[in-house]
Amino acid sequence: MKKPIKSEVKYSLSAGVVSLQEVSDHLSLFGDTTYNTYLNRLIIVASTFASNYIGESLESSTVVDYYNGWDSRLELSKRFADSRPAPSVTYYDAANVIRTLTTASIIDGSGETAALVYTAAPLVALSTQITNPITVTYSTSNLNTAESEAIKQAVLMLISDLFHDRADNIEGSRYKAFITAERLLAPYRRNWV
To answer: How far apart are CA 76 and CA 86, in angstroms?
Structure first.
C-alpha cells in the first residue's frame, strides 16, 4: 500500500451545519426575515461550539493527496465520505502532460484508513521531473448521517437558547437546552489520547 507523500485540505466556506431555513422553522418564525442577519451569526456560533466540543470540523472538505508512484492500493489521508463522488486521479505522464486516470477502482473503507484500490497497479509511465506526479482529489466528511442529525438537533437547540435568551447572560448559569445539547454531542466527542 502506498501512503501519500503530502496532503492538502481545503475547507468549505459554508455558514454552518444547519441552514437559515432550518433555524427559522425550528424557531417558528413563519417567514419573518427580521432576524436573518442575527440568526446567521448564531448559526456560526453554535456550529463552532459544536465543532469545538466534538473536537473535529463538522464541515465537508476537499482533500488532495500526492503520491510519488503507483501501487494497487493508494491509502487516503482522510476518511472518505461515501455519499461523495468518486475520487479523481490525475498524473503527469512521461512527457510532463497532466492526464486523468480512467482505470476502474473502488474505495476500501474496511481498514483503519480508506484506500483507493485497483485490481492491478496502473501501468502508466510517470514524469521523472515532478516529485509527486500522482494526485488523488476527493471529498471527506467527519460525520455520517446518524451523527449529522443528532449534531444538527444540538446546534438548533443552542441557537434557540441563544435567540430566546439574548439578554440573559448570567455567569455560571446553565440552561436545560444547553445541557441537552451537550448530551446530544457527547457520544461524538473525539477522545484525545
So the answer is: 13
pLDDT band, very low/low/confident/very high, at 138 (cuts 50, 70, 90): confident
- Residue keyed to cell 448530551: 183
- Cα 133 to its chain centre, rounded Å, is 26
Report the DSSP pairing between strands 6-11 and 61-67: antiparallel
Contact criterion met (CB below 8 Å) for 62 and 120: no
Q: What is the pLDDT of residues 63-114, one digit of tens each?
A: 899 999 988 889 988 766 555 677 889 999 999 999 998 888 888 877 777 8
Task: Tell me the CB-side half-sphere exposure of residue 188, using CA atoms within 13 A.
Answer: 26
Which amino acid, one-letter code, is at 128? T
- Residue type at position 24: S
Q: What is the pLDDT of residue 193?
A: 42
